[in-house]
Amino acid sequence: MFQLHIGRPPHHKTLSIRPAWLLAPLGLAAAAAIGLMQGAVQSTTLALALVGVGLALLWLALIIVKPEAALLIYTLLAVNLNSFDLPLPLGGARVSPDIVLVSLLIVGMLLRMLTLRRSPAALPILAPYLVFLAVPTITLLWTPTPVESVRGLFRFVGYLALMWLIVDAIVSKAQLRRMVLVLILSTLIPIISGFYQAVTGSGQFIWAGAGFNRIYGFAGGPFTLAFYLVMVMPLVLIFLLEARGQAEEPAAPAGRWRFNRLGLGLLLGLIGVALVLTFIRGAWIAVVVSLVLLGLGRGALRYRQLLFTIPAAAGVVLLTFTPALERVQQAADPTSTLFGRLAVWRLAVDWLLASPLNVLAGVGMKAFEYYYVLLAGPTTAGLYWRRESFLIGNRPHNELLGFMLDVGLIGVVALLVVFFILARLAWRIYRSARDQDLRLVALAFLIGFAGLLVGAIADNVFSQPSVAVYFWIMAGLIMAIDRHMMSDA
Predict the structure, then answer these.
(1) Cis-peptide into 334, omega within 30 deg
(2) Are 482 and 428 a contacting pair, CB within 8 Å?
């Protein structure tokens, strides 16, 4: 409510006006303006632009007024939003729905921070994360690809805004449960669309000694879908095993989360099949290693059995599904991507060692895959140099080398500190929280994180938006638990 004073004191009148009262006249005025514009111009593009602006304002208002609802919607859809472009004329720059939503997420975070006078220091990772962001900001002065460098930097600013909103908005266990449920349900769209690609043969076809139709749903690529599933799969498996434990022990404490066992079991099976059909060998190795670690980390028999069932299931898949076995065997072929990646790694090391500045600060965010990798294309033999279009956007398929090129030693150390803080928080929650559900969320984060670390040895994981966003969402939930729920847990 705000007040208007009419006249001079002491003979003035005061009018109290509620902002909600302005919605109707402002809406009518906007509708009249839009009608006049359409009548004068009669443009389909203008109509679509107006609809887009309206949806953007609605999304921004949702972030400010109902941030939990915005987080739930974004978590449900994020893996599907980076695979296609919007028809926006921005100088040829690629604009996806995800970029638009994240841009407004950053604006909404700032507005919410200012209007509610919230501190940005709510995140325990803030200091090292800002150091990480500072390095590519400075290298914008000399990067050969300033547009791509800004886009890469923007992504990590978006992750920071996303985590801040999670810590600001998710303050109760009920809210946390809704986020966990939506994380689990987010697998449905990519899996269903991926199975459609498998049935119709419309996935990504590659010839590697044999033909492989690799599914990817709306995730943008097979390895993106695969490592997204590596991050989310432990969450589904852990709560499935806990649901089984609750069924065996009917006297479970009141207030425990209960998920449908049949639904979780069916979903876990679908995730496993989708993961196989991506034909991403690194993701297969990552999920086996991470789930074996889960078996080592929990004392209950239902977890210990993973030490045998997971390797056995992997063996059965390889023995009964010939394309999977052929895909594994193809790694030894001299024309396989393994040898192409070794060539890229050598090129990456050469650029890093070209100057001490490159070692300390990198060559610029995204500069390697959009500029430096192309310089060797015409002169280097091997799979990766067959066509320029295959080279563009090609990171080294090793995240340590990739981030060394992006942000150098300074930025990598800062990012490792961020990872260490998050892992320590999750471990503390897992070991110290009296609430079992909070402990399970922390455990799922640790196991998914371990899987991504394994995958990062030979794939682009933390630099892939549709994968990384779910890592940072779960990191935000870990920080929200630590900030708001540990005192009651």
Answers:
(1) no
(2) yes
